[in-house]
Amino acid sequence: MCTGKCSRCIGIILFPLALCAIVSNILLYFPNGQVLQLSEITDLVWFFHGILGAGILAILPAFMMLGAGGAGCCANRCGMLLSVFLSLLGLAGGVYCAVFSSMGLIGGPLCDTGDGEYIYPFRNNTLEYNYLFNQTTWSICKEPENIILWNIVLFSILLAIGAIEAVLCFIQVANGLIGFICGTCMRKKTNILGM
After folding, report:
1. Most buried one in 81, 92, 155, 173, CB count within 10 A?
2. Angle at the Cα of 23 (from 136 to 93), degrees rounded to 5?
3. Which whole-number Å values give the CA distances from 136 to 127, 131, 133, 162, in the listed order?
4. Where would you find the membrane-spanning parts of this chain (predicted)?
5. Which structural domain, as residue segments, surrounds residue 163?
């Protein structure tokens, strides 16, 4: 088993996930492609859970994982230990993203219900009457157009990315500890006489 190769694979997977999280979070600022006033954008977007949590906090350990899983079988124990600490940071970022994405899905978007005032029409509803399970209530939001679908898709993407990154970083914590204790690679034993 080579913990360095495992570390490298996880690092490679984290890069596109982090990029998708950053793009998804940025798109939440422009519902349906429109530029709105700052006060008309859903409040949970301002926690930067995709940009900071699943983005930057995932890219940092990804770089370290690539370095710790570099070519060769040098027992890079220091790099593996550092990847453990950064993976814990990435794990926290993934959980942070997943939690705020869940809250965004449950609470619903900020929208104009037709009177020109932006409110959260779906907050404080029980799960039984939640808008996610009752698509007929979506017509409450008049502006921005398709805001509910926009929020559901993007918050769902961020929730999935955050959860996947948290799992990958947790795997890397275990992998990094094994690599730190045992070394990054098991070398094949070669016979001195060439037999």
Report:
1. 155
2. 95
3. 15, 8, 9, 29
4. 12-32, 44-68, 80-106, 148-181
5. 3-110+147-182
